Amino acid sequence: MRASPLLIALLATPAAAQVLPAQLDKPPSVTPAKPAAPATSSKLVSLQAELKAVEGKIAELKAKKDKLSEMSQQDMLQLQQAMDKKSQLETMISNTMKASSDSQNSLTQASKGS
C-alpha cells in the first residue's frame, strides 16, 4: 500500500504528531448546514400563530368549564334550599296534624268525662 503525498505531508507536520492513530481512521465530523433563515422564520411565524390559536381554545374551554362549575354550584345550592323548605313544610304539617289530633283527643276526653 502506497501512502499519498498529502498524507505524508500531514504526518510530517508537528500537529500531526499529536493526532492519535485511531483518529486517522475516523472520517472528519461534518456539521450540517443551517437551513435558510426565511424558511425557518416563516415556519416559526406559522407555529406561533398556531400556538396562539391553541392557547385561545384552551382559555375558551377553561371559561366554559368554570361556567358549568358555577352553574352546578348554583343548582346544588337551589336543591339544598328546596330540600330545606320541604323539610320545614313536613315539620309544619306534622305539628299541625299532632295539634289537631291532640285537640280531638282532648274533646273526646271532655265529652266522655261529662
Which secondary structure elements does this structure contain, and how are they paired or packed?
Layout: H1 5-12, H2 14-17, H3 21-25, H4 37-113
Number of helices: 4
- The chain-level mean pLDDT equals 80
Count the strands? 0
- What is the strand content? under 5%
Helix content range of the residues, please? over 70%
For the termini, the CA-CA separation is 145 Å
Query: What is the global morphology?
Result: rod-shaped
Rg, please? 46 Å
Secondary-structure-derived class? mainly alpha
Please describe the biggest sheet, giving its number of strands, its sense, and whether it closes into a barrel.
Answer: none
| Series of secondary-structure elements, N-terminal to C-terminal | HHHH
Q: Which blocks of ≥5 consecutive residues have pLDDT under 50?
A: none
Structural write-up:
- The protein is mainly alpha-helical.
- The chain has a domain at 70-97.
- Helices cover 82% and strands 0% of the residues.
- The longest helix has 77 residues, at 37-113.
- The radius of gyration is 46 Å and the shape is rod-shaped.
- The N and C termini lie far apart (145 Å).
